[in-house]
Design brief:
The chain has 23 helices and twelve strands. It is of the alpha/beta class. The longest helix is centred in the first third of the chain and has 23 residues. It starts with 6 loop residues before the first strand and ends in a 6-residue tail after the last helix. Iron/sulfur cluster binds next to helix 14. One of its GO terms (biological process) is lactate metabolic process.
Amino acid sequence: MSSRTSRVDAAGSVVPPQDTYLGMPPFPTAAKHQLRNSQQRSNLTHATRTIRGKRNALVADKDDWEQLRSAGAAIKDEVLTHLDEYLLQFEEAATAAGATVHWAPDASAANRIVGEIAVEAGVSDVVKAKSMATEEIGLVEALAAADVNAYETDLAALIVQLSADVPSHIVVPAIHRNRAEIREIFATNMGTFGEPAPADLDDDPTHLAAAARHHLRQKFLAAEMAVTGANFAVAESGSLLLVESEGNGRMCVTMPKTLVSVVGIEKLVPTWRDVEVYLQLLARSATGEPMNPYTSVWTGAHADDGPTDVHIVLLDNNRTDILADEVGRQTLRCIRCAACLNVCPVYERAGGHSYGSVYPGPIGAILSPQLRGLHDDVDRELPYASSLCGACFEACPMEINIPRVLVQLRADVIDEEPALKPSAERAAMSVAAAGFSHRTLFDIGEKAAGFAHRLIRNERGITSVPGFSGWFSTRDIATPPAESFSSWWARTGGADDE
Ligand code: SF4
């Protein structure tokens, strides 16, 4: 059995597994392929339902949940409005506490900075805590190109790395795997990365966890440098916070001499009082726990406590462009809890690998096209990877109106494609736009609708129109009423005439 997940290329052919999203096909093609993977669908359904159930029970018990959501959104909006000031305040406080702050305008700058720190520290191996920012910039691959091995220490991220796979969920990167698959991955590949799995390893979760602990312990003891992300950066003290469930992050931020944290600039919060709000929102939304098991905080460097060489890389990578967009900027409130993934019917069926990005699901459908631009079909298709049911908006602890941003991005896709091939749908939309803009044309349209009413005899309404087979394959149009609204209004003045 292969331990890696095959994918499908832009032409629809199955291709071998790979450890990068590059070259992955747009959502419709990828999802079609992933939907055939019934084992993955079953793994995902089980996992997302379990997390969702726990989250719902905790939220139902929290009387001030809606107030917390609003407070979380308001704090982030305040930060985003004054981001320049908070960033400078954070840099000043972190520097005064002994950290070195770097500014990375894009992914390649961030990778270069981390690579140079590794070279300067003279290390060839680093341990790494799970971090979406480092996934976003492809740090592990960039370090490998500089002959530095970065070892994932989060259990799910380790499973992904050992199987040369890519993450499929923000919080649980190997959510698409079941324990039989994980046993196979450990038994086959652990030895090539270090301490091998026990020869008699079975798929008992306790034994799998013990194998991972033993394997990782050797990495922690040997590592002289760690790379992490951070969930929050506190402007008033220059501190970073990392929340996690396994303790591997705690090991990363305390054991090695050199610590580098790559942090998106939107992770700022003004004060420690604000952190209280997010710690209540994040754990409940992410894993359905009242409080996450490990919360690590570090402020600068200290000679006799933890790492002595502490670096913070503040990552922009198009975030300031998102900030400039009135509708899209709410995306930057995201705290990467993945609650939107766990409620999304599209994600549950299509799986995380269909989104062609480290950010899958509803948040990925709005974040990836904004971070990367609408330059290719992968990003142009993402805003359509949604039924707009609104479940993500309801679940989001940061009140991000994902459907609203999706609709805006769909409009951007259309606006950015003026040279689009003409299509029947495009022509019909132009006629509709003209009809709604001119009274005479509108009246003609209403008369035509009345005429259509007399022609259409079946109960389903209009079920096909030549040239629109694609559109009508999933939609019908109700039979137009016999009398138009204008005519009814003129006749009754709005009074009910039933
Ligand atoms: S968009 Fe909202 S629900 Fe989704 S990951 Fe971000 S904060 Fe969580």
